[in-house]
């Protein structure tokens, strides 16, 4: 899963969800929003207000943007980090698919 960042006639550059530079809006199944980011090769949901309730094993999905549709499964929450002195909490994710899994890709153009 990734975002096409540039195109030529025969190639496309894709920013993968595993890329450390990714910052993508996400939403949990219960409606809590945050930002997908990375720290030390770990996928995280960051910018989640302390007042929001996160649950271990809760699915995390994409939130619609101009470049990605909503509802695509990113992974599940496995560890929640909450420090009451901070306005935000974070959660690490177990990715939905292993990075080593490879599947053929077809792109359909209108």
Keywords:
110 residues, mainly beta, 6-stranded antiparallel beta barrel, two-stranded antiparallel ribbon, 0% helix
Structural commentary:
- This protein has 110 residues and is an all-beta fold.
- It has no helices and 8 strands.
- The chain has strands spanning 2-7, 12-16, 24-28, 33-39, 42-49, 59-62, 73-81, 88-95.
- The strands form 2 sheets. A 6-stranded antiparallel β-barrel has the order 3-4-5-8-7-6. A two-stranded antiparallel sheet has the order 1-2.
- The chain starts with a strand and ends in a 15-residue tail after the last strand.
- Average pLDDT confidence is 85
**Biggest sheet, open or closed, and with what strands and sense?**
6 strands, antiparallel, barrel
Helix run count? 0
Number of strands: 8
Residue fraction in strands: over 45%
User: Over the alpha carbons, how many angstroms does the gyration radius reach?
Assistant: 15 Å
Structural class designation: mainly beta
Order of neighbouring strands in the sheet with most strands: 3-4-5-8-7-6
- The helicity comes to under 10%
Which term fits the overall shape? elongated
